[in-house]
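Long-time lurker. I teach an intro course on protein structure, and each term I like to show students one example going from raw sequence to a predicted 3D structure in token notation. This year I'd like something fresh instead of my usual example. Would anyone be willing to generate the tokens for the chain below so I can use it in lecture? Attribution to the forum is fine with me.
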Amino acid sequence: MKKTRFCILGMIIAFFCAMVPSYAAMTFPNINIGLQTANTPQDFTNGLQILIWLTILTLAPSILIMATSFIRLVVVLSLTRQALGAGNLPPNQVITSLALILTFFIMAPTFNQINETALQPYMKNQITQQVALDRGIVPIRNFMFKQTHEKELALFVRMAKIEKPKTREDVPTYILLPSFILSELKTAFTIGFVVYLPFLVIDIVVSAVLVSMGMMFLPPTMIALPFKLIMFVMVDGWYLVVKSLVESFVS
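-- Reply from a regular --
Happy to contribute to a lecture. Here you go:
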């Protein structure tokens, strides 16, 4: 667990530092808690750096959501629950926890690569701080590139009004990130549509039967729910959904 926490922290730091232009080298501040008057520009700069790093740590959960597989997982699992029509079952905590656990499972190779190529060499004083940050962002960018569609990437390149990148290395991280999020949402809703179809068929059949029997005031969802649940259990629905989600990230 300690190794995993170091990997995640290294990924977060590398991700934010990669969004800063190369000419603005990032340095880690020496944190000293105290209330003193900033008499020099250097004192003011050190305080500003502390504020920036505390903000980064506060936004750590959002970083995990933005740059990993969490978006696709939580959207598809939520759509699956909605297709079942079982209300808030499973609860939001279960859906979010399952998505988070699967995120760590899917991102484990990326975290391990960050740990091996950037974090561990830096902790052993084998590489400099800037080199560690440059190495740490590479696995994250490679993961996002594999899941990002060219259409979304071209959209943000065009809106940013920059020169068309010739290679992946030429694509700035601040352009790659929204392209990745948009691509993940598109993929998640596509998978959710496929998951929704069998349940929609059951709803239509149950509604047709109720209308033909003259029971138009009986809610079709109440009658269809047991059939949807038994079908989902018989085909081992959660197994199939999770299996499909995990395999969708295999390159």
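Some talking points for your students: The chain has one domain: 2-21+39-247. The two ends are 26 Å apart (CA to CA).
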